[in-house]
Design a protein that fits this description.
12 strands; alpha/beta; ten-stranded parallel β-sheet; TIM Barrel; about 325 residues; about 40% helix; single chain
């Protein structure tokens, strides 16, 4: 288990925070947020699927899995120039982080990995964009090569608790995921790691996930909190919509446990009202993914997010000048 020898938080402590009366929890999280970061600033990110569909994994939530009859077709890895053009467009619309996802089980050395490395180098050359990728499992040498290409962050979500994990995925283990996180951290790449709510897990599973994240040897710098977007053809297609209170509770707990992290209000925003999203920001979320698609699922468009920011008095985080 990739945890610190002396946990920062016990499971009872995390449970107590998570189960705090909701309004008190929001106030506490908002205070932690205010003491560590600019509460009026939100990082805008863009996520592009650079290799869509045909994935050999059996993640029950994912329409890109080759195991299911979901409405997502396998496509080849995108051309470097097309990806760079998408990054330039994202930058012009105010994004300061560009994320690329490939529907792979694991990184394999060869021409396709070399192409991804070139994408990273070219996008870093644009200036003003953090670059993140999510490519599945990788080894220590691959993590180092990503670092040398200029990669800022690697996304590898735990998805759910270790106890519930095999109800969602059977083609890789929780230990596999933790090992990849260790390779990323040891290469000096920032860790982006969170989970998905609304997959049939219990409240205890959500608490366990947050406990694991907060007790990694170094907590993630980026913590995406996703609500399941049910997709026809996947095993979780008939899951009921997650209530907003569960999102708010998870975001607030993550903010308290990991005060300096970017807590990312990720998948599921399209079904949330402006007021519900406002509650998530109040509870400590300070990043969103912009653009009409989040990999393959729908997402609010840029104009809708600009209006939301105007209504709430939020401002997009500016690019790091370095």
């Amino acid at each position: 288990m990739l945890t610190a020898s002396t946990p920062r938080y016990s499971i009872d402590e995390v449970s107590s925070i998570y189960r705090t009366p909701l309004l008190e929890l929001i106030l506490r999280a908002s205070d932690v947020h205010r003491r560590h970061q600019d509460v009026g600033e939100v990082q805008v990110c863009r996520l592009l699927s650079i290799k869509t569909g045909g994935c050999p994994e059996d993640c029950g939530y994912c329409p890109q899995s080759a195991h299911y009859e979901a409405p997502v077709k396998a496509e080849p890895l995108m051309d470097v120039d097309a990806v760079v053009a998408a990054a330039e467009a994202a930058k012009s619309e105010g994004s300061t982080r560009f994320c690329m996802g490939a529907a792979w089980r694991e990184v394999k050395d060869g021409p396709r990995f070399e192409r991804v490395l070139e994408m990273i180098r070219r996008i870093k050359g644009l200036g003003g964009l953090e670059v993140c990728v999510t490519l599945g499992m990788l080894n220590a040498d691959q993590a180092q090569r990503l670092k040398e290409a200029g990669l800022d962050a690697y996304n590898h979500n735990l998805d759910t608790s270790e106890e519930y994990y095999d109800q969602i995925i059977t083609t890789r283990t929780y230990a596999d995921r933790l090992q990849t996180l260790r390779h990323v951290r040891e290469a000096g790449v920032s860790v982006c790691c969170g989970g998905i709510l609304g997959m049939g897990e219990s409240e205890d599973d959500r608490i366990s996930l947050l406990h694991t994240l907060a007790n990694l040897p170094e907590p993630p710098e980026s913590v995406p909190i996703n609500a399941l977007v049910p997709v026809e053809g996947t095993p979780l297609a008939d899951q009921a919509k997650l209530d907003v209170w569960s999102m708010v509770r998870a975001i607030a707990t993550a903010r308290i446990l990991m005060p300096t992290a970017r807590v990312r209000l990720s998948a599921g925003r399209l079904s949330m009202s402006p007021a519900e999203q406002a509650l998530c920001f109040l509870a400590g979320a300070n990043s969103i993914f912009a653009g009409e698609k989040l990999l393959t699922t729908p997402n609010p468009d840029v104009d809708a997010d600009r209006l939301l920011f105007d209504q709430l008095g939020l401002k997009p985080m500016e690019a790091d000048p370095r």
